[in-house]
Amino acid sequence: MFDAHPQFLSAEGYTAMNIHEYQAKELMLKYGVATPPGAVAGTAEEAEAVAKSLNTTDLVIKAQIHAGGRGKGTFTNGFKGGVHLCKTAAEAKDLASKMIGQTLVTIQTGEAGKLVSKVLVGQSKEIARELYFAIVLDREAQAPVIIASTRGGMNIEDVAHETPELLLHMRVDPALGLQPYEARKLAEYLDLKGDLLKPACAIFHALYKCFIATDCSLVEINPLVVTKQNEVMALDAKFNFDDNAMFRHPDIMAYRDITEEDPREVEASKFGLSYIGLDGNIACLVNGAGLAMGTMDIIQYAGGRPANFLDVGGGANEQQVTEAFKILVSDKNVKAILVNIFGGIMKCDTIAQGIINAVKAVSLPVPLVVRLEGTNVAAGKKLLQESNLPIIAADDLADAAKKVVAAALGNK
Amino acid sequence: MSILVDKNTRLLVQGITGKAGGFHAKQCAEYGTNVVAGVTPGRGGETWENTVPVFNTSQEAREKTGCNATMIFVPAPGAADAILEAADAGIELIVCITEGIPVIDMMRAKVGLRDKKVRLIGPNCPGIITPGQCKIGIMPGYIHKPGKVGVVSRSGTLTYEAVWQLTSRGLGQSTCIGIGGDPINGTSHTDAVRMFNEDPDTEAIILIGEIGGTGEEEAAAYIKEHVKKPVAAFIAGATAPPGRRMGHAGAIVSGGKGTAEGKIAALEAAGVGIARTPAEMADALIKKMK
Question: What CA–CA distances, in Å, run from A304 to A286, B238, B262?
Answer without folding.
Answer: 17, 14, 23
